[in-house]
Specification:
Length: 393
């Protein structure tokens, strides 16, 4: 086999050069597998199919024997670059300039995968491949889109094959001002409501013979945003209700519209579940529409992520200790639950999981980049975490 480069910056560049826009893999999983195989990992490709999704390829890789089991989870897919002309450098060129590495996926989350591979490489060399336990990589090709054939199915597969984990680190970009100053220990949930109000169409001059769907919808929307659902709690921000779309689609100024639609997305904390929010929405509707109305409101729901919180345990303690040892920063990292959802939601039922990665600043944007020194720092922190995890003390 040709000599592989385990430098975390070079490895990030190799991964960024694969235009792995979901569900394309473009060779990204091969690069991960090639490096892990070289280190002695047993690699298993897990392509999954489902009638509700495109096919997705995934990778599970493991090394070691009995003892504590540490897993690293991540995704090699990226979101589309958008208008490529707006980018300073082609989005898959992985150009380095001014101590920054540019490219789609550099922050979210190829640098994080590269750092964990490099840190594992360093750890295995230092210990001559002798350590008490197991290290595994759970890498999916679909986190950014439907995520039906991704981490959730890898986790089911591990359970069927009697593979159990003690702890898992998800390499999403979580850091804020400095690497390691923020760890995510949970996430808010997300639910979308697609509301359809059906009234009675008519002439705007004959309103008494019609029932304006738009008036009902605006009243309903006004009510649901009129007061906050909660104030949040020690672990979570307040639940956020956002009107994402309003569609009346009526081209005529003298026609009372029959149909008015809206989409409402709610990012919710652990005070709610998608079930309780669906009830809440039904109550809001019942408050406006009654049997005497000629207008009706129906809705469909897309609930793909419940909120969750991992109580701070052994893993977060070990991460905190390792971060302090590397950075010298005395303040404890912030334990947060903000931002969008992540694949940690599929892992939380299997083992203690926390998210730690590069600084969260340009993901999904034009000119996404990471600082080279941040890559070095994260690599050092991951190495320290692995070392502390398997140390006998
Ligand atoms: Zn990500």
């Amino acid at each position: 086999m040709t000599d592989l480069n385990f430098d975390p910056i070079c490895l990030t560049q190799s991964l960024v050069k694969c235009p792995s826009i979901t569900p394309e893999d473009a060779g990204a999983l091969d690069i991960v597998q090639e490096h892990l195989s070289y280190l002695g990992f047993k690699c298993t490709r897990l392509p999954f199919s489902d009638k509700n999704s495109y096919d997705v390829d995934n990778l599970f890789a493991t090394i070691g024997s009995d003892g504590k089991h540490l897993a690293f989870a991540g995704h090699t897919d990226v979101v589309p670059p958008g208008n490529e002309d707006s980018w300073k450098y082609p989005p898959f060129s992985a150009t380095i300039e001014d101590n920054k590495l540019y490219g789609r996926g550099s922050e979210d989350m190829k640098s994080n995968i590269a750092c964990f591979i490099s840190a594992t490489h360093k750890f295995l060399i230092k210990n001559n491949n002798n350590f008490n336990g197991k290290i595994s990589f759970i890498i999916t090709g679909d986190e950014e889109k439907l995520a039906i054939n991704g981490t959730t199915k890898i986790m089911e597969w591990t359970k069927k094959n009697n593979i159990f984990f003690d702890h898992c680190i998800v390499g999403e970009p979580t850091s804020n001002k400095n690497i390691g100053d923020k760890i995510k220990i949970g996430r808010r949930g997300s639910i979308s409501f697609f509301l359809v109000v059906k009234g009675v169409q008519g002439h705007t001059a004959n309103a008494h013979r019609a029932e304006n769907a738009a008036h009902y919808l605006t009243k309903l929307l006004n009510n649901i945003i009129s007061k906050p659902l909660d104030q949040g709690n020690s672990n979570f921000l307040p639940t956020s209700v956002q009107i994402a779309t309003i569609d009346i689609d009526n081209p005529a100024m003298n026609v009372i519209p029959e149909i008015a639609k809206a989409t409402v997305n709610i990012r919710f904390n652990d005070i709610y579940t998608s079930h309780s929010l669906t009830e809440w929405m039904q109550n809001q509707i019942n408050g406006i529409f009654n049997k005497d109305n000629k207008a009706r409101c129906t809705f469909t729901v897309d609930a793909n992520a419940e909120s969750f919180i991992n109580k701070q345990g052994e893993l977060t303690k070990l991460m905190t200790k390792s971060i302090t040892e590397v950075t010298g920063q005395n303040n404890e990292p912030e334990f947060a639950t903000d931002g969008g959802t992540s694949d940690a939601r599929f892992i939380k039922d299997y083992c203690e999981v926390a998210e730690l990665g590069i600084r969260n600043q340009t993901l999904h944007k034009v000119d996404e980049f990471v600082y080279l020194k941040d890559i070095e720092e994260l690599h050092n922190i991951y190495f320290k975490i692995i070392e502390n995890f398997f140390s006998k003390n």
